[in-house]
Amino acid sequence: MKAKRIFIFFFSFLLTVTFAQKKKDSLEVKWKYAPNFLVGFDVLNAGIGAFSDRQLFQGFVSSKVKGNWYAIADAGFENNIYQKNGYDASVSGPFVKLGTLYMLANDAENPMNGFFVGGKVAGSYYQQEYKAVPIRGFGGSDVSQAFPQSNQSSLWMELNIGGRVQLFESPFYIEATAQPKYLVFSSTQDEIKPMIVPGFGKSSAKFNIGFSWNVAYSF
Q1: 45 pairs with which residues across the strands?
Q2: Which of 13, 73, 181, 198 has the most CB atoms less than 10 A away?
Q3: Residues near 92 by Cβ (< 8 Å), separated by ≥ 6?
Q4: Is the separation of the CB atoms in 82 and 67 below 8 Å?
Q5: Whole-model pTM above 0.85?
């Protein structure tokens, strides 16, 4: 009887240890993160900058986190001017964006190929200068006033919709995206709202849309 109890206890102990080990191994496999990165640069806007007043340079780093989910971070720098409706403004400064992407449809042989959608929170801290701001003068005449250079900040949210495809059998990828944006907050200079925000574009309205065409490298 005593031997039977010892056998039952030993068998139960083995089952418990085996089940716990299997569960642990399953969790380790399920949550294990394998380092992987995709680094890209926007060649579209960098090229357009050679023929326009807007010089925009931006790149990104993304990493697959789990399943079809990717974490992504963007960084860039923009110089731009705004000359319209009596305004003459210039801005210069960096911006950053943080968010996630989800692959809606991808290639069975290469899960990085496909279409994706995602969202980002973005911000910029930049220098702004107004060389001319239209104001109402004496007798209803239109005159302008200049304001000195100042530091400003803005926050916005954006939706990312795009696709990615591998370039032949190389580690390079081509990626195109559209980015509808909504300006959440901007500081003001003497109660004058900004006309341009680096990374966002013209901000005379709350909504804007951007486009990028990236060349990326996977490693």
Answers
A1: none
A2: 198
A3: 78, 79, 80, 126, 127, 198
A4: no
A5: no
Q: What is the pLDDT of residues 102-143, one digit of tens each?
A: 999 888 888 899 999 999 999 999 999 999 998 876 666 678
Mean pLDDT of the chain: 86
Of the candidates 185, 186, 195, the residue with the CA atom closest to the CA atom of residue 147: 195
* Cβ contact 163:114 at 8 Å: yes
Q: How far apart (Å, rounded) are the C-alpha atoms in residues 180 and 99?
A: 14
Residue 10: band (very low, low, confident or very high) from pLDDT cuts 50, 70, 90 = very low
Q: pLDDT band for 34, please (50, 70, 90 cuts).
A: confident
Q: Which two tokens stand for residue 117?
A: 């959608």
CATH number of 33-218: 2.40.160.20
61: its two tokens: 């780093």
Listed in sequence order, the residues at least 6 apart from 70 whose beta carbon sits closer than 8 Å to its beta carbon are: 62, 63, 64, 100, 101, 102, 103, 116, 118
Among 113, 91, 112, which Cα is nearest to 200's?
91
